[in-house]
Design a protein that fits this description.
two-stranded antiparallel sheet; membrane; 2 domains; 6 strands
């Protein structure tokens, strides 16, 4: 071992050898932090130290350190991969399915509106985007005719609407197309909200996609009446389910329950969905008849 400090060159009988880089130092420079130890940096980065003396070869592998670094790097890459995969799936859902796009917008609206706009910024999110109960106020806030569909009061409200929309919206899309789905959805939601404002007297704004979702459900009941579904784990045909739902909503509307649920909007949404169901069924029947006649003429 050299009798000189590698930093200051001081000769001393009591010198210290660094266990990371293998060089000798005086009392003042013996700590790795005092002599900018490159061996310590290698250990932090690679998990092993330089061999003492020549400063070029590597030995004394720190197996535990190597596996820790490998695990950290693997976890980092895996988390990045999962994040990109999830984002790509959301992008694909949003661009290929109107049902999934609406669900994504509603979930994002709930998170941003309730957690950021209301709690952090301090703006009344429901007053901004919810449909006013006073019909005259709708003229001042015309955007609320559409935006109220994407706003939900609480998690249970959001979950129930999106749960029903996920199953019946996708079913409607597959059977009758995306354009018809969007037409029924927004027409039912808008007319249901206007009907609510005309009929109901309440100081609270209307929020939620219930009217639009029930419109899709009702339209599907007209178009595919024998579709088997489960209502509270009870199997039944969708045509029986819509009759049951109409009866419950009409009963609650008549007795005027103070449950903060827009039963009038639900009834209006169902009415629009039923009418649209008959209209779609008629257009499909006319199209099939005309196509068959054209085939006969060509034959």
């Amino acid at each position: 071992m050299s009798n000189n400090c590698w930093i200051c060159g001081k000769q001393d009988s009591t010198l210290f050898r660094c266990r990371f880089c293998g060089k000798t130092f005086c009392v003042e420079h013996r700590l790795p932090e005092r002599h900018a130890c490159e061996g310590l940096e290698h250990q932090k980065k690679y998990g092993f130290t330089k061999s003492p003396g020549d400063g070029s070869n590597y030995s004394n592998f720190d197996t535990e350190g190597i596996f820790k670094n490998m695990f950290k790097e693997t976890a980092k890459q895996a988390s990045k991969g999962l994040a990109f995969s999830f984002l790509n799936k959301i992008k694909r859902w949003a661009t290929t399915s109107p049902t999934m796009a609406i669900i994504i917008i509603c979930v994002a609206s709930y998170i941003i509106g309730n957690l950021i706009i209301t709690n952090v910024i301090g703006i009344n999110y429901f007053a901004l985007l919810g449909l006013p109960a006073d019909i005259s106020q709708i003229l001042v806030k015309p955007w609320t005719i559409v935006t109220h569909i994407f706003v939900h009061s609480n998690f249970a409200h959001l979950f129930l609407n999106m749960f029903v929309l996920f199953f019946f919206g996708n079913e409607f899309e597959k059977r009758f197309g995306k354009q018809r789905f969007l037409t029924v959805f927004f027409l039912a939601g808008i007319i249901a909200s206007i009907g609510f404002a005309l009929i109901t007297t309440t100081p609270f704004p209307l929020v939620g996609a219930s009217g639009a979702v029930i419109g899709i459900f009702a339209s599907l009941a007209i178009l595919v009446p024998d579709l088997p579904i489960f209502v509270f784990f009870i199997p039944m045909r969708i045509k029986h389910a819509i009759l049951l739902l109409i009866g419950i909503e009409f009963l609650f509307f008549i007795i005027n329950t103070q449950d903060m649920i827009a039963h009038s909007a639900h009834l209006m949404g169902m009415a629009v969905g039923i009418l649209m169901g008959f209209w779609i069924k008629k257009t499909i029947s006319v199209y099939r008849t005309s196509t068959r006649n054209e085939y006969v003429r060509r034959w």
